[in-house]
Amino acid sequence: METPDSQSPLLSVRGICKRYGERVALQDASFDLWPGEVLAVVGESGSGKSTLLNAIAARSAPDAGSVQFCGRDGALQDVFGMTEAQQRLLARTDWGFVHQNAADGLRMEVSAGANVGERLMGLGERHYGRLRATAMEWLQRVEIDPARIDDAPRTFSGGMRQRLQIARNLVTQPRLVFMDEPTSGLDVSVQARLLDMLRQLTRQMQLAAIIVTHDLAVARLLAHRMVVMQRGRVVESGLTDQVLDDPQHPYTQLLVSSVLQP
Ligand SMILES: Nc1ncnc2c1ncn2[C@@H]1O[C@H](COP(=O)(O)OP(=O)(O)OP(=O)(O)O)[C@@H](O)[C@H]1O
């Protein structure tokens, strides 16, 4: 897979540190993300992947570090320097966040259509017919029967819920989506279908994404580049195929070889 060309990073992450009491969860994590690029963050359980994602997405404040986001006007925005209201606006317009557990990212008791339409309403769309038509269109795009538009997601299967969560996030045409283990916990065949869909959507929409996964196969399939984390540090980063085919750091070598063993 080729990395998309662009002049300046969409997101620059520098020196992120986070402690929980005495425990250091993140130490000096830095990387750039380019427009339209999919970046996988991999590492074993407890290596700090989710902490990093939540810090970058301004969902929990780090102890140190900075995140700069390049807005649609080309101006760099200092994410941690924003007010909470500005961060919330960014989170529901140019950014999306797909949770591992779809119930954390959906409103389980309201209809699928309302779940998809909510972010559009947040941007000022009030026309019922247009909201419903867009919700229908997005249900189709994520392969949910539009006849289910008035059903609540609690009546959906795990795979459908996850696809609905994706539609809810993508309806505002964000430029960056954060995903925390978006396919884990699903059956293998459901996972494969979801991965295929994510791959198509990220390409069609030229969407940049940061995907936390412990599954190197997910990284291989979706990501242009990857960063490998061990005990809160980024120990290796590079093009996905290069890192997986020729890992340089002993920890990455161990991760790759443990997957290859029968
Ligand atoms: N709220 C919290 N309070 C205290 N310690 C935490 C908290 N959240 C995470 N940690 C600790 O921070 C470290 C990094 O956790 P994190 O959840 O980021 O890892 P991870 O790589 O995402 O793991 P997993 O793949 O299991 O989700 C771990 O040692 C974890 O125990």
UniProtKB/TrEMBL annotation:
SMART domains: AAA. It holds the Pfam family ABC_tran. Residues 11-256 form the ABC transporter domain. PROSITE patterns: ABC_TRANSPORTER_1, ABC_TRANSPORTER_2. CDD domains: ABC_NikE_OppD_transporters. The keyword Transferase does not apply. Keywords: ATP-binding, Cell membrane, Lyase, Membrane, Nucleotide-binding, Transport. Gene3D superfamilies: P-loop containing nucleotide triphosphate hydrolases. GO terms for biological process: organic phosphonate catabolic process; peptide transport. PANTHER family: PHOSPHONATES UTILIZATION ATP-BINDING PROTEIN PHNK-RELATED. This is Phosphonate C-P lyase system protein PhnK.
